[in-house]
């Protein structure tokens, strides 16, 4: 399988409230039974890093393997979605919300031996903001005006406007050694592991770092084994070549593991949504009634069932249940063929119409597109499925907006804010929503932010800005002698330092 | 022989150059920009321009070609757009998997095909001769990935006799482990390859068995074995060797499928990954090395034929045939 990691990283919005909530590792727990602290954990994944630098287009895989394991940020995004201190010991915000004074830990060393200072932090934030940065998080930091380093352990960031998600966003910024070179092929982070060897196309090994400032990893080595074929990955798990699969993408294969006492199938929370994204700028989808009709004409439940069996869930809008501003909106545009027909007639298309659906060529898009075609035929709409590569999608749909409707998976949490950007590929343009999104980011309190984003969420559902078909399941399959692995894999992170093998 | 060798080497170099031009141009005909492989959704136009500049896809084509050719001439295959790793060493590390896989599979295929093909010909009128001929026909029709999946299901998942895939992280540091990982892929390729080889060995043997010279040798008092040894094998091997050369090249290139089924980090999977990521230096490097290997194999097969068959060495003999 060759899936381009289309990561919808964005101007994400965080609750400062969550900061206070959680302190230590979510999966820390107490160790059960006899565990081997010198064990090697073999992790199977479909997402190989493209290179080792997340500001140079490393992709989804580099986050999975290195985030929190090799590189650490000032703050940490926990598996339950909360944010806690990591390399920072705390921070103070000025009353106008524009100045963040962040205090750093004093006992942190990079893998190269150099001590962490505020200069490294400034360097790392600048690296995300640099003109040649390919960081997907770059647009989250447009409010940053100045970064000062009054002493070795203090960083002062000045913002041009309030940004309630600033601390949350910092959990995506890896702290690099400011003197390190060749960061696309080597590393110098502060995390509990160092990169051992990287065999591109095959494996990436992580070795426990003896000089780690925090609690040592519970295993000595972790080897990520990369597969391009989901079946080969499952075979590796069945023959014990790997101990755990980070994200199962082959629903048909799950029965091999569900009825097998040697494996545990974990059904966690995902933030990946499958969208039928309309181009809201062009006819017929510039008409709200048409979008509502199409949404009501498709039986999402049946679609989810046919692709994922009993896994996954329906959403009804862009916000997954793990975001603080989630509401159940599946009833706004219910599955109702008669309603769809009425809306079509009202919109001036009593006999339907024909449109082209640009469909990425990797799973599950082609199968879902065929299903949609059959569903829409029932209300007189003819769908021409146009299969395109991930690369063509990027050029044709994302950059040039040259499409009528498309399908895409959007992986990130807190990404409803894209509906506030009229220049985004789907072209949803509601000035009120744009205003709410902007106000939400500049909120003084998390409650205000949540209230505003709930309004956004309700409005885009009413307008059927896109058709949110379903929320993916996040399935981690592991050998039963393994404990301590993350279940939710938020934004494709996969912390490995608490994994124990008995 | 020396002028022949010189001519043949010159031919090799010219072919390689033409192949490199074709490779370069064909790749550039693909739609899309390799810079896209580096970006994710959310990238700004400035980020896109920066990515294009970094990998040089904003340069005019002739300039890109000259840059690349200059690198190749100095045996530098450049750096991957995506991983930034140098392409040459990466190819070398992939050859460590693909070359043993190809050669072992090839050797096994020959070991299977020669005796089976001979028996199928020598006993073509008996039931088992016909059966072998029929089975080999069936073998040609079976796709290689299907054989791989079947072998994995039976020998890896059910019987647990061999691993289902993968390759040791330290390559050949422990040869036993590496060989163990190669067992099923080698058998897969060998089975499929031997099916077509059996057909060629069978037909070459049939020709020889029917030939006048063999009958004459027998009439002059040679035993069947000595007649076959002195005249038969030598004659039968000439067409078989040219087929062997083609088969070896096919296996080398066909490793793509087998490597994907068995999750082997070989040249084939590098090519597939390169194509998926629009990574021109990687695709060009792999195809250039593959082209070179195929040309060299063809060259060696030609050479072997000339050594075995004097008629090819001496034009006057060939002309009088």
From TrEMBL, chain A:
Gene3D superfamilies: Dipeptide-binding Protein, Domain 1, Dipeptide-binding Protein, Domain 3, Periplasmic binding protein-like II
Alphabetized GO MF terms: peptide transmembrane transporter activity
Topology term for the membrane: Lipid-anchor
Subcellular location(s) per record: Cell membrane
Domain Solute-binding protein family span(s) in chain numbering: 84-413
Signal peptide annotation: 1-20
Keyword Manganese: no
GO cellular component: ATP-binding cassette (ABC) transporter complex; periplasmic space
Family named by the database record: Belongs to the bacterial solute-binding protein 5 family.
The protein's name: Peptide ABC transporter substrate-binding protein
TrEMBL record, chain B:
InterPro entries named in the record: BPD_transp_1_N, MetI-like, MetI-like_sf
Single GO BP term: transmembrane transport
Keyword Ribonucleoprotein: no
GO CC annotations, alphabetized: plasma membrane
Ranges annotated as spanning the membrane: 9-30, 103-122, 134-157, 177-198, 238-262, 282-303
Keywords of this entry: Cell membrane, Membrane, Transmembrane, Transmembrane helix, Transport
ABC transmembrane type-1 domain mapped to chain residues: 95-301
Keyword Mitochondrion: no
Entry-linked Pfam families: BPD_transp_1, BPD_transp_1_N
Entries under CDD domains matching the protein: TM_PBP2
Cell compartments where the protein resides: Cell membrane
Membrane association type: Multi-pass membrane protein
Assigned protein family: Belongs to the binding-protein-dependent transport system permease family.
Name assigned to this protein: Peptide ABC transporter
Organism: Rugosimonospora africana
